[in-house]
Amino acid sequence: MAGPQYVSLAGHVCLRLLETPCLYDRNNDDLYELNDEGLTALKLCRGHLTLEQVGLESEFQQFCLAEGLLVLHDQPRPRPLALGPGPLPSLRYLELQITWRCNLACRHCYLGPARGVDMPVARVAALLREFEAMNGLRVLISGGEPLMHPAWPEINALLSAAGMRRVLLSNGLLLDEKRLAGLNCDEVQISLDGLAPGHEMLRGPGSFAPALEAARRVRAAGLGLSIATMAHAGNLAEMEGLAELVQDLGAREWGIDAPCLAGRLSQHPELAVTPREAAQAMAYAFGGSYHGSGTGPEGQALACGLHLATVAADGRVAQCGFYLDDPLGRAEEGLWTCWQRRRPLELARVQGCRDCQVALDCGGGCRFRAPAPDRPDPVLCALMEQPAPAD
Ligand code: SF4
Ligand code: SF4
User: The domain 93-344: what is its CATH number?
Assistant: First the structure.
């Protein structure tokens, strides 16, 4: 007869206290909402009790075992559970711009010219700790080109112990086999801004082949791959071909964005697309969106970036990378302190979105791209097939 079966959460699974309690699978980026009973039982799954003692509801228990969310041991294997309260709204997604160095000079880069500004390793470590303690789900390591950080090996070592999904955003040029083999990330997001002509129109000659090769290497290394694309005048005709390529690469997500006039893009009006053209390109996108909107405690619709923050290489904390000139604070004040200053925008205050039929689905689009804070985002109006906003 089989002995007692001690149960614990799988290593890639954690509990998170968000607007509702959740179980988070970092490997697959899956979030499961829990009721109070489920939370109480899962808190006991720390390797010191048996399945019977934990008392999970039987169908839920079977599901968790079948999905590999729970693991069984012949012997007790106690492990600590660090679970404290999180902020509201929850901070789920954090972008760390660890450096503003870059090995490209893309014509659309919203950060403007590359600069030798690096986030100190100690600050990266502190932010990862704070974010995890705040019940964070997913960190995006970005730049500039993050692999250009002079202390990249130390930062990569820190990532090995980070209790969240770790995503590296890279242009791919430095992502050789050796770097990939030692990379402590679950997913790599590669920027592909078209097929070769469209991509190189933004990123410069010779930049497409290494990016494509890097995307293939990411998959060969068994890591998750996502693709990020900026719609622009030079890649609209390539979207169908790019869609086939993205599919062939086995990407789990394809994020397509429309340009926001900022940084270097201001000097390149030739890259502009109309809202309708942008919407047609964005319709190819698939997978998660981390800039999403949502609802507040009274069910009121709230605008984009509800669960997102960015920390810049120079320490400014902002609601996203476009708001660095209007920051929430500085990293040394503490991430939680900065996040508490975030005031989500109610869509009822956005003229045009207020009475829109699809406001809850749309969320008012990108607040930075909208022509004014209280106006609809014309790209999303086109994507959602709503009338163009009146001038
Ligand atoms: S303003 Fe635009 S970029 Fe910033 S969070 Fe909103 S959708 Fe994202
Ligand atoms: S479709 Fe347009 S008007 Fe409607 S919520 Fe979205 S941005 Fe606002």
Answer: 3.20.20.70
